Amino acid sequence: MFRRLIQTSNNLKLKHKLLISYVLVVMIPVLIIGLAVTGYFRKQALDNAIGQTINNVEKVKSQTATLLRVPTDISNILMFNNELKEIVNKRYESVVELTSAYLAYKDFQEYKRLYREVAGIRFYSTNPTLINNLEFIPVDKQTEESYWYQKALQTTSIGWFYIPDKGDNPVHKLSLVRKVPFAEYRTEGVLMIVINQDELNGLLRQEPFETLITDEQGYVVAAKNTELVGKTLDELDFGVDLQNQAKGTIEADFQGEPSNIIIDEISPGSSMNSLKIISVFATKNIVKDANTISMIGMLFITLVLVIALLLVYIISFLTSNRLLRLSKHLNKLALGDLNVTSRIDGNDEIGQLSRQFNYMVKSINELMTQVVEATEQNNQLEIAQKEIKLKMMASQINPHFLFNALESIRMKAHIKGEAEIANIVRLLGKLMRKSLEIGNGKTTFRAELEMVRSYLEIQKFRYGDRLAFQIHIDPEVEKIYIPPLIIQPLVENAIVHGLENKEGTVRVNINIRLVEDVVQVCVDDDGAGITPERLAEVMQFICGPEEQEKSRIGMRNVHQRLTLTYGEPYGLQIKSVYGKGTEVSFTLPAGGDQHV
């Protein structure tokens, strides 16, 4: 799939590629970003409106709780009012006696005068001798069957209800309803404190959106639009059951328009029920400004994209035209015209290609002359290499003759009981044969150490007690391939320079260990050591381009072979303390195809 796409792209003309790239990389992303920004602004406007509305609802909730605290406190006082208890439970013999009692009781009127939150106070009683004076009201059948009255008799907690009376003196307002028991008389009544409607509506008058307060039956007890007071939520066209809706934010169609609705509840102290606060705002009014700004932005972006598209088309046309001219010159060159010259002006990449084309034509003419000369030189080199190969084949006769002579000496020494001499001759022959067989190929750590051990045994025979050596190699390293003769020169250097200026025994240690994925090779001795100045000269020679010292050629050869084979990090590292000894080490990668 990917190859097919690349092939299709390679088959398109440059101007078409530029136009497609512009559409895919610029136009479509910009349009997507524009739509995303429009949506972001719209969401931000909605979120801000919702946040503002939630704050407003909290404010209304707090103010409403403050307003309702006044009738709550009044009801708590009247619960234990002895004068109220006497006037409600006394059996009156005449209307005159009842009238005198009514005229003497001024508490209801006094609370109404002192607190603007209270529109009126009523007490419903089952005392048959009472007469309805709009403050003390005998309970009739209609009252007994009313929802609020039945709820009030179930508990002494406060209830908040809209009273939709249909009698002679209807309330039609939010009212505090509370049962007042008289234990000593074994009677009870219901206290009603009517809330001032103007005070309730005044809490909502300054709200920016339509806000309602409803009771548990769904009656609107207060609203910014006062015409909604007394209606139920079912009568209002919300399109969703708000009566049973939990607190939070929902989306619904209010009066046919998409709207956001914020719902919260307020539960005054000691209440058996709660009031619901509902705030509604139409979505289109909130996002109107954001949509206008987004539309202007999209028009501006579209205009910029069209202008940019024209510029891309013009640039692609001019570029394609110059490339076609350069292509014609290349065709002439391909047909063998080595005198063609490109004359495309400009300092851009195409102008540079035109000048490079002229340089290329000139270079081709020069190279053709050089090829003829190089061919003659190569022929001479091939002849010289054949002569060197013949000489190398002939030189192999002398080493074989030397091996045969050494073997004869070894056998003679062995027959005469000279076991030590016979062994040294055997090791010398083995060492030389291994050197000849290795050539330029690869060997293993095991084979390399066999040669090193033979070399050390010969030197041990030579120096006696002045030389001691120890060889350690991890078993898992033995079969790893390495370039030949990279350890033996280091051992030879340690013996020659270690014994040079020191009396007594010199110890040479060879340690080859596997640490994670790296093989560490270390050859150290406790010989005379090297001064810091001399060590700096040795390192400069080993890493330098020219051979200057005959005594360090072996180490320089090892260092260069290591760096050429494995890279710069794998060259020789030399540490030395003058008078204490020298340590030469290097590392090799243990992974890959290095194992046998």
Automatic annotation (TrEMBL):
Entries under CDD domains matching the protein: HAMP
Keywords of this entry: Cell membrane, Coiled coil, Kinase, Membrane, Phosphoprotein, Transferase, Transmembrane, Transmembrane helix
Protein location: Cell membrane
Name of the protein in its database record: Sensor histidine kinase
A GO term for molecular function: kinase activity
Annotated transmembrane regions: 20-41, 295-318
Organism annotation: Paenibacillus taichungensis
Membrane topology: Multi-pass membrane protein
Residue ranges of domain HAMP in the record: 317-369
Coiled-coil regions listed: 364-391
